From TrEMBL:
Taxonomic lineage from the root: Eukaryota, Fungi, Dikarya, Ascomycota, Saccharomycotina
Organism encoding this protein: Zygosaccharomyces rouxii
UniProt-listed InterPro entries: 4pyrrol_syn_uPrphyn_synt_sf (IPR036108), 4pyrrol_synth_uPrphyn_synth (IPR003754), UROS/Hem4 (IPR039793)
Residue intervals of the Tetrapyrrole biosynthesis uroporphyrinogen III synthase domain: 19-244
Pfam families in the cross-refs: HEM4
Domain of life of the organism encoding this protein: Eukaryota
Name under which the protein is recorded: Tetrapyrrole biosynthesis uroporphyrinogen III synthase domain-containing protein
MF-aspect GO terms: uroporphyrinogen-III synthase activity
CC per GO annotation: cytosol
GO biological process, one term: protoporphyrinogen IX biosynthetic process
Amino acid sequence: MQRAILLKNKTAQQDKYEIEFQSNGFEPVFIPLISHTHIPQGLLKLLEDDAYLKDLQDIIVTTQRTVECLYESVLPQLHASTRQLFLEKTVYAVGPSTKDFLIRIGFKNVKGGEDAGNGSILSDIIISDYREQGKNSEPLLLVGEIRRDIIPKKLSSNGIQVKEVITYKTENLPDNLTRFQAMARENSWVVFFSPQGTEEIIESIKNGSNHRVASIGPTTEEFLQRKGLEPDVVSLKPDERNLVNAILSI
């Protein structure tokens, strides 16, 4: 059985990448590269304001780490009525996995997902909706401490101001290369989901390994190329099925 090294934290509740790789004859192994610490205080404080919560229409979520913070550190601390009102808000999500996770924790109206593989595409969807519906409200953007500013810049340039609230912070784990080398096997697939924490692993692969490399999408592909590592495949969309299909295609 060929090993697939997934350079990511295993998703809480259920990881669809694990299921998809196993069902296609791979042995998936997760190697977390970064630690996540929830920072729920800012959002909890904001949601104490009944007037703000009532006026809030839309939430923007770009990562599963934010959803984990909501699930583990925010929703359990809300009063039942506040939680219900919060879960009724429209959520715009980057990627299908983030969308599915949001639905599993109770959000009813989630847009984007498989139709929004990155923040730029999601911004286009939001801009289109706001124009069609004549909205002038301020969406709530839930982010990590380290984040790109594509969404707020693009929305702002189209007259949509956002309110940003940090929900988690990330730090590189100290022994990423050691754990990678311990788990690597001959002809393993190595799947990159994000640039963070990968530098030493990239150099290790470049220095004569026989691993094959897969990228979850074009942003990570560009990072790998800048570091001198050309991926063998790039997933057409950032989801488990397209990723595995890309790997099976060669």
